[in-house]
UniProtKB/TrEMBL annotation:
Start and end residues of each Amine oxidase domain: 16-447
Family (UniProt): Belongs to the flavin monoamine oxidase family.
UniProt: FAD binding residues: 16, 35-36, 235
Swiss-Prot/TrEMBL cofactor(s): FAD
Biological source species: Mycetocola lacteus
GO molecular function: oxidoreductase activity
Chain sites annotated for binding substrate: 340
Protein origin, superkingdom: Bacteria
Family annotation (Pfam families): Amino_oxidase
Matching SUPFAM superfamilies: FAD-linked reductases, C-terminal domain (SSF54373), FAD/NAD(P)-binding domain (SSF51905)
Name of the protein this chain belongs to: FAD-dependent oxidoreductase
Key words, A-Z: Oxidoreductase
């Protein structure tokens, strides 16, 4: 067993942990980053599958993600715009397949008016509640005690309007059923994106991608840190006092003044803390869980939908694949579609064998794009639920009542132990931008504490 001494030990080599390590090292503190996997990146992962480069994890960059954009500039990484020329497709409650242009679904006038009205209400709530301290809002307890589904039912009788507005948070973001989280959690999701209007605007929130894949962010950060990053080192135990901590991993022990748990909250309990964490921390961690989504990659010889005047963007709360996009790589002659199967729909198809699941998903894609979608040359499913060191996607959220009850303490350090991940972000919640923001903030908190000694 190797034993080393550092000022700070960081558990997790994702974007948040590596950002914190970079900031700390730049201010003269020594660091060691311990990563359980055989790679860096956490929920960012770009890989080559059967000759196709696929972004298995996070991938998009939006204009409001200034922390991520600054990091991309510092690392000299270039972006390209998502393909969006042509018409989109919507499949309604009646099963009708409709091509449309613009940012409004082609629903009947009454449904469109109800959707617009709900978006205005949610924009106002998102602005009022805010992303920084939603638990402190005067209506926090009220909004955290009603499910997202029940809130929608209270605010409109229009089923298709409910289903579409509900999709933007449940299936598309938190990847949990609408009855499984609160209206307050949904409003936080909108506030973290700047507004509900931003959340429903795919051309805003899914604006650009990084040439070569977004995993290049953690890869380059880790490269700059050099020998301070240790792979295949799951941390099993943290022994701590008020001003010191020892991290014990499979092949290395790190003695440090501070520790950063830079992993999603559902993994906190994988570590044995001595002494045990405070009672409320234990309770809080049991109320935070990841959702479940299958990210489907289908690569074709050509982007055939473009020839038919389609952008590749499709939506339907009534399809197995609730949304899909043209995800063709930069300057790649082949065409790639990326689609998503979320929460209970994912549960259902995971009960099937791989071939039956593939057939069901391709049938859903074909409902949008036609029979050509049935024949990809490469097909791959990103299944983060089976990843030992993630266990779901995209990020953790609280169950009913948890955000108002525990939110204020989710980032509070315990002695020398700090917490850092996109799951804890205000702006950029559950996105790479949020991971980077929290990484910067965590590093600054440790630097301030260290310099005050």
């Amino acid at each position: 067993m190797t034993e080393i001494t550092r000022d700070v030990v960081i558990i997790g080599a994702g974007a948040s942990g590596l950002t914190a390590a970079t900031d700390l090292k730049a201010r003269g503190l020594s660091v060691a980053v311990l990563e359980a996997r055989d790679r860096v990146g956490g929920r960012l992962w770009t890989d080559t599958i059967e000759g196709a480069m696929l972004e298995i994890g996070g991938q998009w960059v939006s204009p409001d993600q200034t922390a991520l954009i600054e990091t991309l500039e510092n690392l000299k990484l270039d972006t390209f715009s998502r393909y969006r020329e042509g018409e989109s497709i919507y499949i309604g409650r009646d099963g009708k397949h409709t091509r449309y242009s613009g940012d409004r679904f082609p629903v009947d006038a009454e449904t469109a008016a109800e959707m617009d009205r709900l978006i205005v209400i949610l924009d106002e709530l998102a602005e009022s509640v805010g992303a920084t301290e939603p638990w402190a809002h005067p209506r926090a307890q009220e909004l955290d005690s009603i499910t997202w589904q029940a809130w929608l039912e209270e605010n409109t009788d229009n089923i298709e309007a409910r289903d579409n507005i509900g999709l933007f948070v449940a299936e598309a973001m938190l990847t949990k059923p609408r009855h499984a989280f609160s209206a307050l959690q949904a409003i936080l999701m909108a506030a973290s994106a700047g507004s509900f209007s931003n959340l429903v605007d795919e051309d805003f929130i899914l604006d650009k991608r990084v040439i070569g894949g977004l995993q290049q962010v953690p890869l380059r950060l880790a490269e700059n840190l050099g020998d301070d990053v240790f792979l295949n080192q799951p941390v099993r135990r943290l022994e701590y006092t008020d001003d010191s901590v020892t991290a014990i991993a499979d092949g290395i022990t790190v003695k440090a003044q501070y520790a950063i748990m830079a992993v999603p909250p559902n993994l906190y309990s994988r570590v044995d803390y001595q002494p045990p964490l405070p009672r409320l921390k234990h309770q809080m961690h049991q109320h935070m869980s990841l959702g479940l989504v299958i990210k489907v990659h289908a690569v074709y010889e050509t982007p055939f939908w473009r020839e038919d005047g389609l952008s590749g963007t499709v939506f339907s709360p009534y399809q197995l694949v609730h949304e899909a996009y043209d995800n063709t790589n930069h300057e790649d002659p082949r065409g790639t579609l990326v689609g998503f199967v979320s929460d209970q729909h994912a549960d259902k198809v995971f009960m099937q064998d791989a071939e039956a699941r593939k057939a069901a998903i391709l049938d859903s894609l074909a409902a949008y794009y036609g029979e050509k979608a049935q024949n990809p040359v490469v097909y791959y499913e990103s299944d983060w639920g089976s990843e030992e060191w993630t266990r779901g996607a995209y990020a953790t959220s609280f169950d009913m009542g948890g955000l108002a009850r525990y939110g204020a303490m989710q980032s509070t350090p315990v002695g020398p132990i700090y917490w850092s991940s996109s799951d804890l972000a205000a702006e950029g919640f559950q996105h790479v931008d949020g991971a980077i923001r929290v990484g910067h903030d965590t590093a600054q908190a440790i630097i301030a504490r260290h310099e005050s000694k």
